[in-house]
Amino acid sequence: MEALAEGLWGLADFHEKKGEIGKAVKCLEAICQSHVSFLPIIEIKTRLRIATLLLKHTHNVNHAKSHLERSQLLLKSIPSCFELKCRAYSLLSQCYHLVGAIPPQKQILNKGLELAASSGDGFAVKLWTCNFNSQLANALIIEGDYRSSISALERGYICATEISYPELQMFFATSVLHVHLMQWDDVSLVERAVEKCNEVWEFIQPDKRHQCLGLFFYNELLHMFYRLRICDYKNAAQHVERLDAAVKADLQQVQHIQGLITEINNINRSLSRSDLHPKERSALFQKQSQLQEQLRNITGLSSTGNDSMELPHFEKVKQRWGDKLELAPPPIDGEWLPRSAVHALVDLMVVIFGRPKGLFKECGRRIQSGLHVIQEELVKLGITDGMREVDLQHSAIWMAGVYLMLLMQFLENKVAVELTRSEFVEAQEALLQMKNWFFRFPTILQGCECIIEMLRGQYAHSLGCFSEAAHHFIEAAKLTQSKSMQAMCHVYAAISYICIGDAESSSQALGLIGPVYRIMDSFVGVREKTCVLFAYGLLLMKQHNLQEARIRLASGLRITHQQLGNIQLVSQYLTILGSLALALRDTGQAREILKSSLTLAKTLYDIPTQMWVLSVLTALYQELGERGNEMENSEYERKKSDDLHKRLADARSSIHHIELIDKVRFEVRQLHEIDIKRVISGPSISANLDIPESVGLLTPLPASSSRLVDMDTGRRGKRKI
């Protein structure tokens, strides 16, 4: 009977390599369903293999879970089989994770840890201990138990240290940093976690680092999120540059490897022909050997034997250079995000850094690139036109959440770019896309409701609908628990009230600015401080308290220039300070400041700010009696005004304009109770979506560290952290 089982196992391998997963499963199930009894160990191995195939290639999680639970029952009667028991625990944990059953997942992982603790101190035992601690930390994160999650990861780190495995130590060190970034309880703890990652990375031998591409991306992205969070944009930019260069190199490498694999496949097909001439066959064997050697040199994987590339080694190459960026070796086999998501995320980071500098052409290219990648991945997950979240396979919900969140952030940045460039119709379209995606996936994207509402405020303000803008900003503040986001929305609303201009609106603006101003030094970084100083200075100027306004604005400008490097906000600061200088009869300084502001506004294609500067310059030339400059300036201002009014008219004539500015929240169709239960365990992206960049008002760089860090990135139960 063992020979029969081995024959069916071999046939299943054959079908799997050909991509015929259904046939492979049927071969294996023939053993389980046979009327003839096989040894328990054979049935256990077979059921574990079936579960692995189902989890890897299908969405049939419940079927996999049934096989694993049966395997567990059989394993209870066998005193040994440590490896098989651990595999069963690990796979069953992944099943529970995919169906959102966290309590039974924790229970099964604790059983695995108990088994490992009673099985000695061998290398394999330590590896499985690392596996179970990693998955347990993941489950605890889902429950929001950060402290226990960090404890589990630290136990994993100790295990990795005991077996002198630096790559595995790095896996746990970066995971600890990730949890600290999500929690952000104590800045000193985050700093220590960053330092620990740097220490461990340096401990990995340089020739091995290039083999740890997944860890490299994970570590660099986490470091960048940390730098963004503390507004250290200079050092964050260095991480972006390294990441961008690594993505380009990775794409070239993947394309080269795929080309070699295709050539080898073609040669293998030719060699299978029975009518091939001996000379041709010999030449093909020689070519095959050369290509295999090239592939070995590139991938760093060794192999022996003439047929090695056709079987296990070839499969390793395809797995390693496929869509997966592994963070740790088997049996952890963890990943944070798949390769395509990492590439899209790096594109997003380039956009976030390029947008405040006015690099809109490059931003547009990266946005299109990222959206294209994400759309392709969503189609692979079965998300096509018209599909809603209740139609998703449950096991696809996790990765769908990752790609949908990335999609929304690309669209958010597109809205910001288009509003800055006064391309209001384009901004409308991107904002409507965000609304439509939110309507289709309201539970997965529930955290995006705040962002959408805030962007409606940005859109309304850009089109001069200040009352509507203030309403949407205040509504956005109600939709988030983030103190930082609430503060920013209140500042935005205050600026809209200031623009209305009457006494009541100024009073409302003061009521919003005051509480934020009093706590502005309590926030991490300086974004909130620079924005509230801008708003407070603008309000003081409206109240004719010019000297006090000048002090606040000068302070805000200095911080913005030195720490944020955001030229849109700098331009707007300079415009107000130029107006103040003119009001204070300091015409020399006013001229110098306003010309600098106009140059920056032109760089950003920011027409409203350009017109604002031009109007102040016209007043300056009138006061100085420079008739020629006044006429030239007025003519240029008129052209810009005509251009802007045409753009505004096009946007206002759209059937969607009223829908976007209307003082009514978008009504999402409520799911039935059974639908809610089905989706609720999926990745609701609701926690602490950080500040997006303001548009047309003032512009704190988004530094969306927590927004990116808190993305639920679990995949197949291996890495959510």
TrEMBL record:
Its main location: nucleus. It is found in: Nucleus. Pfam families: Cohesin_load. Coiled coil: none annotated. One of its GO terms (cellular component) is nucleus. One of its GO terms (biological process) is mitotic sister chromatid cohesion. Keywords: Cell cycle, Cell division, Chromosome partition, Mitosis, Nucleus. It comes from the Eukaryota. The keyword Methyltransferase does not apply. The keyword Cell cycle applies. Belongs to the SCC4/mau-2 family. This is Sister chromatid cohesion protein SCC4.
